[in-house]
From TrEMBL:
Source organism per UniProt: Cohnella suwonensis
Cofactor dependency: [4Fe-4S] cluster
Top-rank taxon: Bacteria
Protein name, entry field: Radical SAM protein
The keyword Transport is assigned to this record: no
Length: 418
């Protein structure tokens, strides 16, 4: 399992002598064969800016910096895969922050690239290679011609064609989970927000946030256009918007109007669930699925990352439990980081949270963040660190009725059963 590194032109090499290493939290670790899988289809290799690669001499076990103008390399994984380790690296300039992506340790082994990760869901539905860009362009043109006054479709066309966002692409391809963003504002100040960053954050938001308040008619058009099969999902709460429940009035009216015309498909919301009153009203309007983003079930850790405005983790738990009790298929968008999510205290807290709220699904999502910046923000570990592979085993053992996956699913049983 040899070290993978890149030159300043982006050419990638494997070192003939040094082994690749990885990182869990702040600790450099050796990789084991059972923690590696071949580089998945749809994954990409990227250089880590302002870094030097670190390798290990297998004869001595000594770790060393690779001399020369080279940088460390990480892999960006598609949905369906949970990373076990971050790449090993040393920063040459600690003031420079990585772009907001989820970097995974990668090595060269048996004449191919391998990553420190495991499969946690079926990757095929969200494999970027399955999105035909030519077909997408044709469908974008067709939909924009059909709805020339719909500003949301214009916004989503940019997300689909420029950012290559798969959820917005699905909206035009009329498959899987489609997007219907509604909010330009948020009640949290997430440290790693991908759509809006303060000027002094050091991060560059990789995409632009929605800048207008959609009309109910615009929202309803997108929902009805997408909800044409029993398995289709339309989702409020996208990476290009703030917190959707801040526009509860629009969402509630849109759901009522759509359900007055069709019962096909599923209506989902991706939310921080902090506005409990709004979430109850949205649930009661006819919501089918709810995915709540969280990074921890511990207040101190949650607050450090989300910087919630006017709500607490208790509000999030309250919203989830209410939705579960009302028959909504509930899940969490669990933002995980090796060396943090697999801490003893984090695992215990999350198991308790899942049991109290009646969660149906935990979506394991690799946190897009600069590792050093994140670790400096959150509380230090209080107990043992078990490892990400063990974390998944513990969840499956302790939460046998909870699905461990990677993305939003259609419920496994008929909605009438809820």
């Amino acid at each position: 399992m040899h070290l993978v590194y890149a030159d300043e032109q982006g050419n990638v090499f494997d070192h003939p002598d040094l082994y690749g290493i990885a990182r869990s939290g702040n600790d450099l670790v050796e990789l084991l064969d059972e923690e590696l899988i071949p580089l998945p289809a749809g994954a990409t290799l990227v250089g880590l800016p302002h870094t030097r690669p670190i390798g290990m001499d297998p004869a001595t076990g000594k770790m060393q910096l690779l001399p020369g103008a080279y940088q460390a390399v990480g892999a960006l994984l598609p949905q369906g895969f949970t990373r076990f380790y971050v790449p090993g690296y040393s920063k040459t300039d600690k003031t420079q922050l990585f772009p907001l992506f989820g970097y995974t340790a990668v090595v060269w082994k048996d004449d191919g690239f391998y990553v420190a990760a495991g499969q946690s869901d079926d990757p095929e539905p969200w494999n970027p290679e399955n999105c035909d860009r030519d077909e997408l362009k044709l469908e974008v043109d067709r939909i924009l011609n059909k709805y020339p006054e719909n500003r949301l479709y214009k916004h989503l066309s940019h997300c689909a064609l420029e950012y290559e966002c798969l959820t917005s692409s699905n909206t035009f391809l009329q498959r899987l989970e489609g997007a219907v963003p509604v909010s330009f504002s948020c009640n949290a100040g997430c440290y790693g927000c991908i759509s809006e960053q303060p000027d002094d954050s050091g991060f560059v938001a990789p995409q632009t946030r929605l800048k207008f308040k959609p009309e109910v008619d615009e929202v309803v058009e997108i929902m009805l256009e997408h909800l044409k099969t029993p398995q289709s999902i339309i989702s409020f709460g996208q990476g290009c918007e703030g917190e959707p429940s801040t526009q509860a009035k629009t969402i509630i009216e849109a759901i009522k109007r759509v359900r007055g015309q069709t019962q096909l498909g599923y209506i989902n919301i991706n939310t921080n669930a902090g506005l409990s009153d709004h979430m109850r009203a949205i649930t009661d309007a006819g919501l089918d699925l709810m995915r709540v983003s969280t990074i921890s079930a511990l207040d101190e850790h949650y607050d450090a990352y989300y910087k919630p405005r006017g709500y607490t983790l208790k509000n999030v738990e309250k919203s989830l439990k209410y939705a579960t009790d009302k028959g909504v298929y509930t899940s969490i968008n669990y933002l995980i980081f090796p060396g943090v999510a697999d801490r003893e205290e984090e695992i215990e807290a999350m198991i308790g949270f899942a049991r109290r709220t009646g969660l149906k699904l935990i979506q394991m999502r690799n946190l897009n963040i600069d590792p050093d910046a994140y670790l400096s923000l959150i509380p230090p570990a209080q107990g043992e660190i078990y490892g990400m592979k063990t974390l998944l085993d513990i969840f499956r053992q302790e939460l046998p009725d909870v699905v461990i996956g990677s993305y939003t699913h259609v419920p496994p049983v008929n909605r009438q059963a809820f």
